[in-house]
Design brief:
The chain is α/β, with parallel strands linked by helices. It contains ten helices and eleven strands. The chain has three domains: 1-33, no CATH class; 74-96 and 194-363, Rossmann fold (3-Layer(aba) Sandwich), CATH 3.40.50.1100; 98-182, 3-Layer(aba) Sandwich (Rossmann fold), CATH 3.40.50.1100. It is 34% helix and 16% strand.
Length: 365
């Protein structure tokens, strides 16, 4: 099993329980070394992401928790006079890429005998966790903003989770969940805990395989906490190390809504002062995160790839969604911010360009 430790003080993750942050200093946990990739260990007899379970850090006797996540298609379309590949993560079982992480984190919970947990979310992570908790027999309590999309709230309840709607901002929701967690509840946080990152890395392995065992030239994707971005970078780095250390990993283009863009602010100014970041209303609710917890790691990953962060104005979001729909991709506004990002960056992106479509249009009303 891969080692997990506090990024601040180095304390190892305990062998029992499920703390969401270091008990010694309050720091974030992460894997000591990136997930390895070994093509010879890919188990083709297993479905979806579970072909790569050797990268998840789970003990060999841990039972998978699965709803058929992963193995999403990579579909090509001509846009802006370029052939671009679209990774259709909105086709995962609950309608978003979050299923890759939820499958792994619920397997971790189950492996430690935990059958009750809380989570907070703008919607997609909560719906995904509720689905996989139901599959694993875990009682879920999910905190969301009162403003969360109606379909996402109904989806959470349909899975049998307790829905807690919190007035105020997305930050207020996170604080409410932490208060409950600090009162003794297990907090299965997709933001604090590192267990979802190897799940997200499986999308990188799939893209590499779908491109004929070749690296993409660039990846364009929405970023809120930046977990998917970080997982993809780690996945591509692991492939590069295993297959051909001299090849380049893809240029990463992370996309945020200007209404709340802390990653873009830090990337462009070098200043992580939250006072420079607003938390205004945006149609792209899934990337509305004022305080991304792994901001330093995300920015380092983008810089190392020679990529960039870009922002999208509100009046660009729905037109982008409509243009994607005309290509056959029905996605929610959060996912649609990639269209404006393509307009801004495609001239400078090396082929092949892969755009990650993160959430289904059925989740928005």
């Amino acid at each position: 099993m891969m080692e997990i430790s506090c990024t601040n003080c180095g304390c190892a993750y305990p062998s029992d329980g499920f703390p969401y942050r270091c008990l010694a200093c309050g720091g974030l946990f992460d894997f000591r070394i990136p997930q390895p990739f070994d093509p010879s260990q890919v188990d083709l007899s297993q479905p979806g992401i579970w072909r790569y379970r050797y990268t998840f850090g789970l003990s060999p006797d841990s039972e998978p928790v699965s709803l058929g996540e992963g193995s999403t298609p990579l579909l090509w379309a001509e846009v802006f006079e370029r052939k671009v590949a679209f990774k259709c993560e909105f086709l995962n079982p609950s309608g978003s890429f979050k299923d890759r992480g939820s499958a792994v984190i619920t397997a971790w919970l189950k492996s430690r005998g935990i059958y009750e947990a809380v989570e907070d979310s703008s919607g997609n992570a909560g719906a995904s966790f509720a689905a996989y908790a139901a599959r694993a027999g875990i009682k879920a309590r999910v905190f969301v903003p009162e403003s969360a999309s109606g379909p996402k709230r109904r989806q959470i309840e349909a899975y049998g989770a307790e829905l807690v709607q919190v007035p105020g901002s997305r930050t207020d929701v996170a604080e409410a969940a932490r208060t409950v967690a600090d009162g003794g509840n297990v907090y299965a946080s997709h933001a604090y805990l590192p267990f979802n990152l190897p799940g997200y890395a499986t999308a990188a392995y799939e893209i590499f395989e779908q491109l004929g065992n070749k690296m993409p030239g660039a990846i364009v994707l929405p970023a809120g906490q930046g977990g998917l971005l970080l997982g993809l970078v780690r996945g591509f780095d692991a492939v590069r190390i295993a297959v051909n250390p001299i090849i380049n990993t893809p240029k990463i283009i992370g996309v945020q809504a200007r209404a709340c863009a802390p990653l873009w602010v830090m990337f462009t100014t070098g200043n992580a002062d939250a006072g420079l970041v607003v938390e205004n209303h945006t149609l792209a609710e899934g990337v509305k995160v004022r305080y991304p917890l792994r901001v330093d790691a995300v920015i380092r990953a983008v810089e190392a790839s020679h990529g960039s962060m870009c922002v999208v104005d509100e009046d660009e979001i729905l037109p982008g969604r409509d243009r994607l729909a005309r290509l056959g991709f029905y996605v929610e506004p959060t996912s649609a911010i990639v269209w404006s990002a393509l307009i801004q960056t495609i001239r400078d992106l090396p082929d092949p360009v892969v755009v990650v479509l993160t959430g289904s249009g059925y989740k928005y009303e």
